Amino acid sequence: MKISRGTHKGRNIKTPEEIRPVSLKVKESCFNIIKDIVPDAAVLDLFAGSGALGFEAISCGAKSVVFVDHAKASLEVVSENITALGLELKAKTIYGDALERIKDFKIRNQAFDLIFLDPPYYQGILNKTLQRIVEYDIVSDFGFLVAFCYESDEFLDKYGYFSLILKKEYGQNRVLVYEKSDLSGNI
Predict the structure, then answer these.
(1) Does this model's pTM top 0.90?
(2) What are the residue ranges spanned by the domains of the chain?
(3) What's the average pLDDT block by block, 10 residues per block, for the chain (187 residues)?
(4) What's the topology of domain 6-180?
């Protein structure tokens, strides 16, 4: 898989065999949508898999990326890519369950400007994760969530202080962009 834009454009990143990475077409479309959000953003790549979204964000000017995944093999590959791209000062990996790590970020008072959510499809994980992010409030004011799901996965237009601002479909895949705007947290 290649990084498609920015300072690392054209660089290859290794991809673990057992994951389903976001397709190049969907990734490029997503970054066309969020191109003004990424520069200088603190990014969280939950369910990182190959880390393709986080690496694209760094290449497009994100100041830092944290990659979280529960698969050690995926994080080993992400770590290899961090080293190969010379990004040790901008990127780190955290092993564990995404829902538990969200809680840990809150405990450490760590917030992100942009969070990528690309959980396994068909398991209802997206809704649980969005609800957990609202519960623990780990997104900076007026930050964004970019979620990827299957066309038949259920989702809401509003999660607490997050409002859906864009929904795009690419074949059987859907990209959802939420903005943190209603800081009261009312649903």
Answers:
(1) yes
(2) 6-180
(3) 91 84 79 92 95 95 97 95 97 96 96 94 85 95 92 86 92 91 56
(4) Rossmann fold (3.40.50)
